[in-house]
Amino acid sequence: VVKEVSRLLVDNYIFPETAKKMEQHLLAQLDAGKYDKIENVNAFAQALTGDLRSISHDKHIRVTYSPETVKMIRAGSSRSAEDREKARKANIERQRQGNFGFRKLEIMEGNIGYLDLTGFTGLDEAAETIIAAMNFLANSDAVIIDLRNNGGGDPYTIQIISSYFLDETTHLNSFEWRGEDTIRQFWTLPYVPGKKMYDIDLFILTSSRTFSAAEEFTYNLKNLDRAIIVGETTGGGAHPGGNRIVDDYFLVWVPGGRAINPVTKSNWEGTGIEPHIKVGQAQALEKAHYEALDRLAEREEDETRKQRFEWAMDGLRAKMEPAEVDEATLQKYVGKYTRGEVKLEKGELFLKTQQQVYKMIPRTQSYFILEDWPQVRIEFVLDDSGKDYVIKAHIEDGSTEMVPRIK
Prior knowledge:
By secondary structure, this protein is an alpha+beta fold. 35% of the residues lie in helices and 25% in strands. The protein has an eight-stranded antiparallel sheet with strand order 13-14-15-16-17-18-19-20. Strands 2-3-4-7-8-12 form a six-stranded mixed sheet, with helices on both faces.
């Protein structure tokens, strides 16, 4: 297994000199008896993977134990045209059931478009979904694309989506492959169905799980100064390739190509992509949403629209940094009001109306944001007697309404 893994890398890895170094290292480990006492097949595969990466620093390289996959690959190469067509249709159906990676679309508060994209499918059948998603976002004032759980995919989908966010025909990326004299270039498309969004702010969310093609999309737009990256440093995989059969039981993923960015003349292999705004992946969406609103508010000259952006920012601040209010103070607000009831449960206030229960997030000691009801804010103020609290409801349009307490 060690010798065949070494041979496959020497014959196919994108960097021949590095492949020779990996071969020398593996054979030296073999001669030294490093693998002799490993009895678990998966542990053996992991040991080989670790040794290969210690030389190459290439996160796409991996050895796996999977007899089933070996059988499937061998069977696939000898299948009839009819069987291959059945497999192709089955793959399309699997991708369709996952909506081709488009998991969620939303217009967030402040007219900020949001797309949760978990993969870049290369299927032609995904085109209608891609176009529909982009047109859903087209009237947003800013867009957030969430790649925190995106492990990669195909450069052709990157090409289509990027074309909606760049005005002029733009060189996105190139790929060099071992054994090929030409370099494949990817440019934005001269036409896309629907409205382009080249003049609005674009945010991309990343995590350590963001990998491969998801990193390419991020890297391309970052180096074109077209997107603000928010979150964590990405995984660091820029060398595409494929599985090679070692024997009846083992496979090795051999990267046979490398990305070459037209701006940096390099790529993100082994280092990942540093975000402009570093936050934990769990806080990335709220942070990007806030940054988008802040930029819009700063540029806005119309006071009504500006106030709307600032209203949304205030709500986000409460969620990101809620005020600390002791339980004794919260208890003073509990009671029945003409428009609902305020309850205290496990140290948190809730507003119960006839239709729903809303969690109340403290912005100050007496001012609260309502989760899932962004158009209304609740402030507790003393009544004319100065002894009892009433609700002063603040509405998004700037108006207020007093809500008396009845019990």
